[in-house]
Amino acid sequence: MPVHAWLPTAMVAPTPVSALLHAVAVVKAGVFGIIRIVFYLYGTDVMDVLGLGLLLACLAAFTVIVANLYAMGQDNLKRLLAYSTINQLSFIILGAAVLSPRAAIGAMVHITYHGFMKITLFLCAGAILVVTGKKQVSQMAGIGRSMPITMTAFTIAAFGMCSIPPAAGFISKWYFCLGTIQADRVAFLLVAVTASVLDLVYFFPVVRTAFFDRANAVSGYETERPLYLFMLVPLSITGAFAIIFCLFPNTLYIFDLAKMAADNIFGGL
């Protein structure tokens, strides 16, 4: 922030496009580029001596908190997820800006972990829209009983955004917290904890509305509509990976690669 407005606006795109935009393609290229600039163009020593690390960390921390506050005011599900993306991307930048090995590991693995979690959330939002025509959180009362697999996958991915195990976001944010202590930047540890609490504040109402609010929910969405299986299988796979990355962080050697990069950047952990 304040150069964030394009991302919530882009959520009007079709859901598969939104999922790729927010989880994989454009936004991840941006944070990857910033990490490369911080660690390889400037380097940790120059960033620290010039105070650029602290400046970048403060800008990222501001965006993490404010994006969460914006998300709390959203009723449109995809727009809520868009502000969540702004928050999570800024968290990755914050992890790099802390300039410690463990925080860097947390930032780098979160690029992948967040991708699987966020694409799950957008695929779930798209499935809900296609099957029920509902876009607003306030319209989704009881939908968890009609679409239990979809909303279970959504809940798992939402847990990851809130740093709650057994979703992968817990691992990356845990390493970020260790990194703030390692770098003696405890203020940013408080930012991470506050951000996770705010994540919970706006994701919990979605889950509560879906599973616990009473409504005239129509049963059988996930079994009576054959075409829905083409949406159900992808979100189930990405949701499963959100758990697998928590239980087995080095799946696909992601964690080892992050450790190798951090060791190369900082000359040892």
Q: What is the SS-derived class?
A: mainly alpha
The main β sheet shows up as: none
Radius of gyration: 18 Å
Number of strands: 0
Number of structural units classed as domains: 1
Average pLDDT taken over every residue? 89
So what's the oligomer here? single chain
Structural summary, described in words:
The chain is mostly helical and about 270 residues long. The chain has one domain (about 15-265). Helix content is about 75%, strand content about 0%. Helix 2 packs antiparallel against helix 7 (about 100-130). The longest helix has about 30 residues, at about 100-130. The chain is globular and about 60 Å long.
How would you summarize the topology of this molecule?
Blueprint: H1 6-9, H2 15-23, H3 26-42, H4 44-49, H5 52-72, H6 77-97, H7 101-132, H8 143-146, H9 148-161, H10 169-182, H11 186-211, H12 221-224, H13 229-247, H14 254-266
Descriptive key words:
mainly alpha; 14 helices
